[in-house]
Design brief:
The protein is of the alpha+beta class. It is built from 14 helices and 19 strands. The strands form four sheets. Strands 12-11-10-13-15-16-9-17 form an eight-stranded mixed sheet. It has a six-stranded mixed sheet with strand order 1-6-7-8-3-14, with helices on one face. Strands 2-5-4 form a three-stranded antiparallel sheet, with no helix packed on it. Helix 9 packs antiparallel against helix 10 and helix 12 crosses helix 13.
Length: about 550
Amino acid sequence: MEAKLSNIRLSTVVPGQMTVENTVHHLTNTDLAMKHHYIKAVYFFNNEFAELGLIISDLKTAMSHLLSRYFTVAGRIRRRPEDNRPFIKCNDGGVRVVEAESNTSIDEWVEMKHSDVSELAYRDHVLGPDLQFSPLLFLQFTKFKCGGFSVGLNWSHVIGDAFSTSTFVNMWAQIVNCKTLSHISISTKLQISERPSTFQNIDLVGNHWFNVNNTKMVTFSLHISSKNLDQITSKANAKPFQALCATIWKSLAKIRAQLEPKTVTICTYGSQKNEIKSQGNNQRVSKVVVDFTVSEASVIDLAELITVKQNNSDAMFYGETLTFVNLEEAKLYGFELKGHKPVLANYAMTGVGDEGVALVLQGPENYRGRLLTMTLPSDQPLERNSKSLEESIDNLGGSQRPKASKVPPISCRFEYFSAADKNAFVKEYATIRQRDDESVTKYLARFLRLAGFAGSSVGTSLEQAEKFKWTIHYRYRSILINEKFTDVAQAADAAKNIKMERQDFLASKSDGGKKRSRDGQQIQQMGQLNQQQGGNSGN
């Protein structure tokens, strides 16, 4: 089966309040240096999200309120007639919204796409060639067959960096959660500092802002567990970001052999990045240049060079040299909707140069560690590329080999737990039962969580569905016992339908035992019908 999207619909969301006429936002040289780059952000929510009562129109309404304050994001690019320099006209053009449905579960999508998030964040969006009509932001809502849901953003880097993206998303969540944003004030001209010596030679020509690569670029993610991260930092004698950069640099040098990268770019951020007033591109850029063989160097030496960052960069283009971006401090799991945080948040960068880029992000909150999302050049299939990098990282460090694993499915793979943990999970799964005070939704989440922890011992999806059917509360089990289900989600849906039918029946009893159908006609309830049939049988 191939992972596909269907039932795709497009719409536009504009600010809820009209922006003052002739409001403009002037782009700094740093902003314009980022014009070929786009940030893809995707937040995954499990099937509990469907129980929140939130619908896409609620998210759109909240976005409309947010755009009244983030009016720059709803604008369009224009050029000054005197020097052709681009700026943003805050004309309330709005952001484009894509709604789609997937033929897979979230776990299947992540596995099939090698954690590439681009298709869930409107892959094809770039600014131009009709620059003045191009939205600066695309949103994408995707529903999965497992009941899960994803929110994706395709964010034009020209309006802000990845920290600006995460801050924007977290403010959106605050509005959804009915929290006040009255304390937030965004001026027409945002306070963005521009270092005088940086980005002096900016290309202002052209209305189609995208990068053409000379080689195929592939995107994939690796998950480094907290245990393995401790081993890597210990081996490199450095903090996580520097240790991971050094490890990846050495690994890629081994893979590329004679073409090993001698120069890398390091992109970090200041400490005030979570303030809304800092919207824009405020990254600090430096380069590390070496004249020795990187593949033979120690990770300690490489990590030390990265920490010192001796050479300041006067230009920045992701992938012009191998680029490492530190997003450890970005609050990716601050996008909390009605008390539910995403089970996985992933960011990627597109429009990067041929040398590639590696983003170091927070790992999923339940697993800690780090998530590495990389876009790298490859003349090989993605599977071989990612596997080579995994093996190269695994082989560093001799007897203490940190294992880099692909991003875990949302239900969580067992491979991040010890043998003792697994045995405990297997035993708990063997005796699992739905509690009297536990809803079907909460039991489903607990069941899937244990099944994920227990690993392959839980059997196929059919076997898990059978297990779920026999362990659900007796009020459902007696009805479902003779039914066949292909997966657990299908069995859970059937139980929910039983619950709704019972609620309808109880509601009808309070109305004299009668219920009206949608066309207004009265219908007899099952209890009355059974009573009538019982009376007939006694005659």
